[in-house]
Amino acid sequence: MVNHRALQRTLFRMQLDPGFAERLQAGDRVTIASTGLAEGELAWLRAADPRGVSADRGGSRRAQFLRNVALEFSSSLALLPSQLLEEFPCSDEFHSAVRADGSLPLALARYLEARSVRAPREVRALLALESAMVSARRITRETVRPTGDAVGLAPWAHLVRLPSGTFALATRLREAAASGTKPVAPGFAPGDSGNECVLIRAAADADFAGHRQLYVEPLPPPIAEFLAYVEQQPRSRSERASYARQVDADGDALEALVGELLSEGALWTMSAPTD
């Protein structure tokens, strides 16, 4: 029986990475093993005309793929060398994702992060934010379900710690791109120092591809600290009252905040839907 899915994955890899196609045709053992194809299927590929098997007229399919996979990295890729994206289909991250039927945007996130360690600080910060958003659209955090009157950070909510000014910089870049105006200077504003915490919350309903709309907002330090506290583990009402005393906050005001965060979906309780 022909493994049609493995054959499709191999053909896709051949079309986007000519080097992979050449190694496969040459009989490279590591390349062959990565396909998961049986000998008969490999024989069919070797017997076929390489120009037909890996044909991509004018590179149009590759270009379309790169445009699609890069959509969620518009800010960081605007500041990174264009060649970096061009080389993604030749990377281990790309091939591993295709072999495993994994998410290609998540693979691109891993690829860009691994190759941007020497990029300017603001570029790495933008990439960290966009990578977190890519992950939040597709992955629900594993977390303990609260019991009793405890609340915890919802599994579809994510706290991301970034250099101060990252969210504002991403907003400026996005607005400039949307309006077609000249891109803003790719740097932090004067006075930006330290860190900021950004809340990324996924909507309850996913689209046909399983992706969720995101709500992203920078948090004032007191709210960020409280959410980090309930992220560690669900906290009961008595624990929250103790926390309020420790940080010299009004307990009733804190419970009012808890109510707001529950209604927004940033927190969940025993009675909250599991999304």
> How far is the first residue's CA from the last residue's CA?
39 Å
Biggest β-sheet description: 3 strands, antiparallel
Helix fraction, binned, reads 40-55%
**Proportion of residues in extended strands:** 5-15%
How does the overall form come out from the CA principal axes? elongated
User: SSE string, helix = H, strand = E?
Assistant: HHHHHHHHHHHEEHEEHHHE
- Count the strands? 5
Radius of gyration: 23 Å
Give a brief description.
With 275 residues, the chain is mostly helical. It has helices at residues 4-16, 18-25, 29-35, 39-47, 50-53, 60-69, 74-79, 82-86, 92-99, 104-114, 121-138, 166-179, 221-232, 237-246, 251-264; strands at residues 152-153, 157-163, 195-206, 212-219, 267-268.
Any chance you could write out the topology, listing elements then pairs?
Layout: H1 4-16, H2 18-25, H3 29-35, H4 39-47, H5 50-53, H6 60-69, H7 74-79, H8 82-86, H9 92-99, H10 104-114, H11 121-138, E1 152-153, E2 157-163, H12 166-179, E3 195-206, E4 212-219, H13 221-232, H14 237-246, H15 251-264, E5 267-268
Antiparallel strand pairs: 1-5, 2-3, 3-4
Helix pairs in contact: 1-2, 9-10, 10-11, 11-12
